[in-house]
């Protein structure tokens, strides 16, 4: 008989027991059918069947524990907890039930309750790696990442190849590394007109409970001249799902704006989307305001984003944009990136503006960049390699283009 036909027939068969007070039938076969129903998106029918079996076999703990799990999957955490507690009170030596019960507390947003259950579970299963892993999860969820890391180290001391613990240790190490120093060096090689241009950056970043702060020193050698810019970036958290970007920079060289500043709001949206809206201001001989916005989408290990810039002006506004793609590997520090764009970007310092800001902002260009970013095993050291090519209109000879070949290396060190 076809499996799904069998499931439907058995579902109807169990439904006929709706008016009876006690189950009649083979509990093992009925349990198997109920499991099939649960895993085939017929959870309500499965739960009704399981409850019916329990009217005659109240201490069939596999059935009650599975029933509790289905409640937990559906978000009925209180009902799940009651069923788990019933089983564990009568049979506290059930490891699988302890694990499912602790997960139920974590999923319900009750990490302190999960920790209480962990303590009881460890009296029956001392040093059990899976229970300890859930203990670390509860400690992390209750804002004690240091204790979580200590627990993970205990797991790895007894089982050095525990894959989940290894990955969690790296994640916690990154989370606890509140300070970052970084270096970046890049060079632009031109097909004609200009000598190579060099860019260097040194930064210090600090993560706080209010958001992160980045202090940067940018050094450029362009047009046979040297220039330094001092910048501060801040990413304050406002409320859950809403944060901001604030920027301020100063310089005393024509290679940079005298003053630059900007602000942007980022908002998380349903379906793993994120949107932002803000502006950048560049002050040379006059101040140019550039409006910007982005839309991003997280899809499993992929991230897509489009950012646009609009600069009001006469006879018409200048527009530019960049489409970006990232393919993440084990975490946010390990990914491959591709960027394709056209038009002027205020994030790049390649021009001698010299009071000619309006003309430069309207220059035509196209770019293509590839990047690869990776970290050490302990996530303390982060490296990045990027290469790109741009087809750029010449500022003093509109309509004429040259090629720019870019290469850059970056290194960040994370520490407590």
Automatic annotation (TrEMBL):
Protein name: YaiO family outer membrane beta-barrel protein
Gene this protein is translated from: yaiO
Pfam families, per database record: TPR_19 (PF14559), YaiO (PF19413)
InterPro entries: Beta-barrel_YaiO, TPR-like_helical_dom_sf
Domain of life: Bacteria
Domain YaiO beta-barrel: 179-348
Species of origin: Flavivirga rizhaonensis
């Amino acid at each position: 008989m076809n499996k799904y036909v069998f499931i439907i027939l058995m579902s109807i068969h169990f439904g006929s027991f709706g008016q009876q007070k006690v189950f009649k039938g083979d509990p093992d076969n009925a349990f198997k059918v109920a499991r099939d129903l649960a895993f085939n998106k017929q959870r309500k029918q499965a739960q009704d069947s399981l409850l019916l079996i329990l009217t005659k076999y109240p201490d069939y703990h596999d059935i009650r524990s599975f029933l509790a799990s289905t409640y937990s999957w559906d978000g009925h955490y209180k009902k799940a907890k009651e069923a788990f507690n019933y089983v564990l009170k009568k049979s506290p030596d059930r490891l699988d039930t302890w694990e499912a019960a602790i997960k139920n507390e974590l999923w319900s947003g009750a990490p302190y309750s999960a920790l209480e259950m962990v303590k009881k579970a460890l009296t029956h299963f001392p040093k059990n790696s899976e229970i300890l892993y859930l203990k670390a999860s509860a400690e992390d969820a209750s804002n004690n990442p240091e204790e979580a890391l200590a627990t993970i180290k205990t797991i790895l001391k007894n089982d050095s190849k525990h894959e989940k613990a290894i990955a969690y240790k790296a994640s916690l190490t990154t989370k606890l590394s509140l300070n970052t120093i970084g270096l970046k060096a890049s060079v632009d090689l031109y097909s004609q007109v200009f000598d190579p241009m060099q860019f260097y950056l040194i930064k210090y970043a600090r993560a706080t409970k209010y958001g992160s702060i980045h202090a940067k020193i940018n050094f450029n050698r362009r047009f046979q001249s040297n220039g330094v810019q001092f910048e501060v970036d801040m990413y304050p958290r406002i409320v859950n799902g809403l944060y901001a970007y604030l920027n301020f920079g100063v310089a005393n060289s024509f290679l940079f704006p005298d003053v630059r500043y900007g602000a942007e709001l980022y908002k998380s949206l349903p379906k793993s989307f994120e949107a932002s809206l803000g502006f950048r201001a560049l002050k040379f001989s006059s101040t140019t305001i550039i409006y910007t916005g982005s839309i991003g989408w997280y899809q499993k290990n992929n991230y897509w984003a489009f950012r646009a810039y609009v600069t009001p002006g006469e006879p018409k506004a200048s527009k530019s944009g960049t489409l970006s793609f990232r393919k993440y590997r084990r975490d946010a520090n390990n990914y491959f990136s591709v960027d394709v764009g056209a038009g002027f970007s205020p994030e790049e310092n390649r021009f001698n503006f010299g009071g000619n800001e309006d003309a430069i902002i309207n220059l035509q260009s196209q770019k293509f960049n590839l990047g690869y970013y990776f970290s050490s095993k302990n996530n303390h050291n982060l490296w990045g390699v990027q290469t790109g090519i741009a087809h750029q209109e010449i500022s003093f000879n509109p309509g004429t283009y040259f090629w720019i070949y870019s290469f850059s290396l970056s290194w960040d060190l994370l520490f407590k």
